[in-house]
Design brief:
The protein is an alpha+beta fold. About 15% of the residues have low confidence.
Length: about 325
């Protein structure tokens, strides 16, 4: 698929989403301050099906406005039943590494979807045979098939159907990433593999194709460019290998060298790495470790203990 066609597809997707926003202030901000990047453009270039479109924002004000708007919409659509144990998700800005980060807080670091039981939270990786991946795929495809219901009307399209602390998933295969913001170069500092670094900007209405990303796509060779979340990068390799990519030992060593600088027995570091850029890897593992910490303030995370919990979760 060529640049012109890709640009047309992304522009159409963006304009449809903007038209669905009912708050004029939010609408005006996203028109000027949105970036689409990640796997969607790579899939379009390769002529593959797009799983989801990742939308980022160039400044924290826009990210906060978008997050607040859709959190409000989600809570309005899903009122908490009387006597329910569920707590309403809420928005908060934290400092991480000296930077302000927007985060959606939910009970037990959970993940909430529109089909979630009022007193339960869905987790990805506690199911055998990668059912967690299937759960995500099913959720993201609700725009095409909502649990056997008819296809969505335009009125229902682009509503919030899935929340994590880092992102808001809309029907219509859009993920709004609220954890990171900035220009394309700043956003890509959080990326790991170069083939995902092409991008489209709402300010120009044009797609930018990076030469290194194009070479990686043409050769189907994974090239690691460094990431704040190398543990997550190792996990992501599985996905790309299934799609026909190759990775050499040198690239894997680059990831391992970064991981060697981390203290993964520090629960905060481990949580940050496992959540990373991907929506919800290993949240049940983190929840289990945190629960143990609450029960025993002297509890220390150890490799054997983490291994035993992983075996219980993954089977």
């Amino acid at each position: 698929m060529n640049r012109r066609v890709i640009n047309s597809i992304l522009t159409k997707k963006f304009n449809e989403w903007v038209d669905s926003i009912k708050d004029d202030v939010v609408k005006e901000q996203v028109k000027k301050n949105t970036i689409i990047t990640g796997g969607a453009i790579a899939s379009l270039l390769l002529g593959e099906k797009v799983n989801d479109f990742d939308f980022y924002f160039t400044n924290i004000r826009t990210a906060e406005l978008v997050a607040g708007y859709y959190l409000g919409v989600f809570n309005d659509l899903h009122p908490i039943p009387e006597n329910s144990l569920m707590e309403r998700p809420y928005l908060q800005i934290d400092l991480a590494d000296g930077e302000a980060r927007i985060k959606i807080y939910m009970k037990s670091a959970g993940i909430q979807g529109e089909k979630t039981d009022p007193n339960e939270y869905q987790y990805f990786e506690n199911r055998p045979n990668e059912e967690g991946t299937d759960f995500v795929t099913t959720t993201l495809s609700k725009a095409d098939d909502i649990s056997g219901e008819e296809l969505e009307t335009e009125e229902k399209k682009y509503r919030p159907i899935f929340l994590t602390d880092n992102a808001i998933t809309l029907s219509g295969k859009i993920q709004l990433i609220i954890r990171f913001y900035g220009n394309a170069d700043e956003i890509h500092k959080n990326y790991d593999f170069v083939h995902c670094t092409n991008y489209w900007e709402s300010s120009t209405g044009r797609v930018t194709l990076r030469s290194a990303a194009m070479e990686s796509l043409l050769t189907k060779q994974l090239t690691y460019v460094g990431s704040k979340y190398p543990v997550c990068s190792v996990i992501r390799i599985r996905k790309f290998v299934r799609r026909g990519f190759h990775i050499n030992a040198g690239q894997i060593l680059k990831i391992l060298m970064q991981i060697s600088q981390l203290d993964l027995l520090d629960l905060k570091v481990l949580e940050e790495q496992l959540v990373g850029v991907d929506t919800a890897y290993f949240v049940e593992l983190i929840a289990s470790l945190e629960k143990q910490k609450v029960k025993d303030p002297n509890f220390q995370v150890t490799q054997p203990y983490v291994a035993s919990v992983i075996d219980r979760i993954f089977g």
